[in-house]
Design goal:
Layout lengths: L10 E5 L9 H18 L3 E4 L13 H10 L5 E8 L5 H14 L4 E6 L6 H6 L9 H12 L21 E5 L2 H10 L3 E3 L8 H11 L11 E9 L3 H19 L19 H10 L3 E4 L1 H15 L3 E5 L5 H16 L2
Parallel strand pairs: 1-2, 1-9, 2-3, 3-4, 4-5, 5-6, 6-7, 7-8, 7-9
Helix pairs in contact: 1-11, 3-5, 6-7, 8-9, 10-11
Length: 335
C-alpha cells in the first residue's frame, strides 16, 4: 500500500443541509451551523451550500438565507453558494442578495453559479422563471457580473447593495459547457465530480487550455468535489457510505426522500443496474479509515491536480459526519 501523504492544497466543505429520517429542517439547519463551526476550527477554507428544490432530504432551497445564517454564526470561514441555480432567478435579485451578504460579511462570501434548475419540470414552473436553454445562461452570468461593477452615471438599473462590491463569482459545471464559459470569462471553475465525474478530465483540460485572464482572475483556478467518508474502521466507513448509495438509488427510482440510515447489506437494497449507475456517479469517492482517506485524497489530487478540493459527505448521524470531516482535515494537516 502506498505511503503517500495528502496534498498541501486548500480544502473546503460542501453541505446540503440534509434532513434525515426522524429529523426536521430546523434540526438540519442547526446541524449545518454546528458543522460550519467545526469546519472553521479544523481549517476548512470554505463552507458552501447548494440550491435544490422539491427535495425532502435537502433543506438548502433558500440558499442565500441559509448562507447568511451560517456566516452570522461563524467568524472567518468563507461561506457561499455551490451553487445558486441561475435559471431559477433574475440576475438582479441574485446580485442584490449576494451584495447584501457581502456587505454584512465582507471578504467572506462566494457566489457559485450553475445552469441547471436543480429540480424537476413542475417545480421549475412553480418557481415562475422559465429556462430558455443553455444559450441563456452565459448572458445571465454576464448581466449579473455587470451588477457588481461600480455604478455608472445614468445607469438605469443598479444592484443596491451590490454595485462596486467584490463578490467572487465561480462557474459550476458537470460538463464541458461550464468549463468553456469559465475559461472565456476568466472565472474560477468548480466541477461536480462528486456526482457526475464522467467529463471531469476533459473539462479541466479545456478550462486550462482556453482560460483568458480577466480583472477577476489572472490565472485559471479549478476546484474539484470529492465524496469522503471516514471512520475508525473501513467496515464502519463503508456502512456509513450506504446512506449516500441509497439516496442515489432512490433518485434513480424517481422517489427521493429523507436521508436514510445506513444499512448492513447494500447489495440487498439495490438491483445490479442501480448499483452500476450509482457506482458510476459516485466514482470520485474516498471511503475508509484514516490511512485510506489520507492516501485516497492524495492519489486523487496527484492524478487530477486541482487548485482546491471541496469535500462532501452524506452521512446519517451528525456526530459521525463531524468525525469524518475531522479525519479528512487530519489528512491535509499531514501534508
Amino acid at each position: 500500500m502506498s505511503t503517500s501523504t495528502a496534498p498541501a492544497i486548500p480544502f473546503s466543505l460542501l453541505d446540503l443541509a440534509p434532513v434525515c429520517e426522524g429529523s426536521s429542517p430546523a434540526e438540519a439547519f442547526a446541524n449545518s451551523l454546528d458543522l460550519a463551526r467545526h469546519a472553521e476550527a479544523l481549517g476548512y477554507r470554505r463552507f458552501w451550500l447548494a440550491e435544490h428544490h422539491n427535495m425532502p432530504g435537502i433543506a438548502s432551497a433558500a440558499t442565500a438565507v441559509l448562507i447568511g445564517h451560517i456566516a452570522g454564526g461563524t467568524r472567518n470561514i468563507r461561506v457561499g453558494a455551490g451553487g445558486v441555480m441561475l435559471p431559477n432567478h433574475a440576475p438582479l435579485q441574485v446580485a442584490e442578495q449576494f451584495g447584501t451578504l457581502a456587505s454584512l460579511y465582507p471578504g467572506r462570501i462566494d457566489l457559485g453559479l450553475g445552469r441547471a434548475p436543480g429540480t424537476d419540470q413542475p417545480t421549475v414552473q412553480a418557481l415562475r422563471r422559465y429556462y430558455a436553454g443553455a444559450d441563456a445562461f452565459p448572458s445571465d452570468v454576464m448581466e449579473l457580473l455587470r451588477y457588481f461593477e461600480p455604478a455608472q452615471p445614468g445607469q438605469p438599473v443598479q444592484a443596491v447593495p451590490g454595485a462596486g462590491i467584490e463578490v467572487p463569482v465561480w462557474i459550476l459545471g458537470s460538463s464541458l459547457f461550464g468549463a468553456q464559459l469559465a475559461a472565456a470569462l476568466g472565472l474560477p471553475y468548480a466541477f461536480a465530480s462528486h456526482f457526475a465525474p464522467a467529463a471531469m478530465t476533459e473539462a479541466l483540460a479545456l478550462y486550462h487550455r482556453d482560460f483568458k485572464p480577466s480583472r477577476r482572475l489572472r490565472a485559471p483556478y479549478a476546484m474539484l468535489a470529492l465524496n469522503v467518508v471516514a471512520a475508525e474502521t473501513r467496515a464502519e466507513a463503508r456502512r456509513l457510505f450506504t446512506t449516500q448509495q441509497q439516496s442515489f438509488a432512490r433518485l434513480r427510482r424517481g422517489a427521493p426522500g429523507l436521508i436514510p440510515p445506513p444499512v448492513d447489506d447494500i447489495e440487498a437494497y439495490w438491483t445490479p443496474q442501480e448499483k452500476a449507475s450509482v457506482e458510476q456517479s459516485l466514482a470520485c469517492s474516498v471511503v475508509g479509515d484514516a490511512r485510506d482517506v489520507r492516501e485516497g485524497i492524495a492519489a486523487f489530487a496527484a492524478r487530477h491536480r486541482p487548485d482546491e478540493l471541496i469535500l462532501t459527505a452524506n452521512i446519517f448521524d451528525h456526530q459521525a459526519r463531524r468525525h469524518s470531516f475531522a479525519l479528512a482535515a487530519e489528512a491535509f494537516a499531514a501534508a
